[in-house]
Every structure is written in C-alpha cells, then in structure tokens.
C-alpha cells in the first residue's frame, strides 16, 4: 500500500498575523483540508520567533510541517480547521 502524501494546494499559504498562524489548504487523497500552523511550531523548528517572515519559515520547513499536519489530521478528519502545533512534531 502506498504511503499517504499530503500536499499543499498552490497559492493557499497565507500569514494570519492576528491569530499568529500560517494557514494553508492541503490535499490528501483528492480531499482538501484547511490547516493552521501555529507560530510556536515555526519557532520550534527554526529557533527564531516569526517576525514578518512566517511564510518564509513555513516554506523552509514545509516537509516537517506536512508530516506534523498529517499527524494532526489523523486525530480527527472531520474538523473544519486542523490546527498544527509543536505537539504534532515527531
């Protein structure tokens, strides 16, 4: 059986500064899901607090973020917004 691969839908990555998260739409097996990656996770991955460069950090660590997002999605595939935090990192 092939491993499930979560991909980012092109053009959907946005920095939501007021909520301190980067949001994106991910696709898995033809289904789309809305994700929010908390700034704390970006800081945990990079060692730097996001200050105007959250999308850049997101893109730099996208492989790790997608793995964590798949873990977060696995908890409840029916949620309207999947929040990905540093707790989802392996």
Brief overview, please?
InterPro entries: DUF1488 (IPR009962), Shew3726-like_sf (IPR036692). The chain has about 90 residues and is α+β, with helices and mostly antiparallel strands.
Word description of this protein:
- By secondary structure, this protein is an alpha+beta fold.
- 32% of the residues lie in helices and 27% in strands.
- It contains 3 helices and 5 strands, in the order ββββαααβ.
- It has helices spanning 39-46, 54-60, 62-75; strands at residues 7-8, 14-16, 21-28, 31-38, 82-84.
- Strands 1, 2, 3, 4 and 5 form a 5-stranded mixed β-sheet that branches.
- A hairpin with a 4-residue loop joins strand 2 (14-16) and strand 3 (21-28).
- The longest helix is centred in the last third of the chain and has 14 residues, at 62-75.
- The radius of gyration is 12 Å and the shape is globular.
- The two termini are 22 Å apart.
- The model has no long low-confidence stretch (mean pLDDT 93).
Q: What does the secondary structure layout of this molecule look like, with pairings?
A:
Blueprint: E1 7-8, E2 14-16, E3 21-28, E4 31-38, H1 39-46, H2 54-60, H3 62-75, E5 82-84
Parallel strand pairs: 4-5
Antiparallel strand pairs: 1-3, 2-3, 3-4
**Span of the ends, CA to CA:** 22 Å
Biggest pleated sheet: 5 strands, mixed
- Structural class based on helices, strands and sheet pairing: alpha+beta
Task: Give the helices and strands as they follow along the chain.
Answer: EEEEHHHE
Number of strands: 5
| Low-confidence region ranges | none
Q: Look at the structure and give the mean pLDDT.
A: 93
Shape: globular
What is the number of helices?
3
Strand content: 25-35%
Give the helix level as a range of percent.
25-40%
Query: What is the CA-based Rg, rounded?
Result: 12 Å
């Amino acid at each position: 059986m092939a491993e499930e691969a979560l991909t980012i839908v092109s053009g959907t990555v946005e920095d939501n500064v007021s909520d301190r998260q980067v949001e994106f739409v991910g696709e898995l097996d033809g289904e789309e899901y809305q994700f929010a990656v908390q700034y704390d996770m970006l800081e945990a991955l990079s060692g730097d607090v996001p200050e105007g460069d959250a999308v850049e950090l997101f893109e730099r660590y996208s492989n790790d973020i997608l793995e964590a997002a798949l873990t977060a999605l696995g908890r409840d595939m029916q949620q309207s917004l999947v929040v990905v935090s540093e707790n989802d990192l392996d």
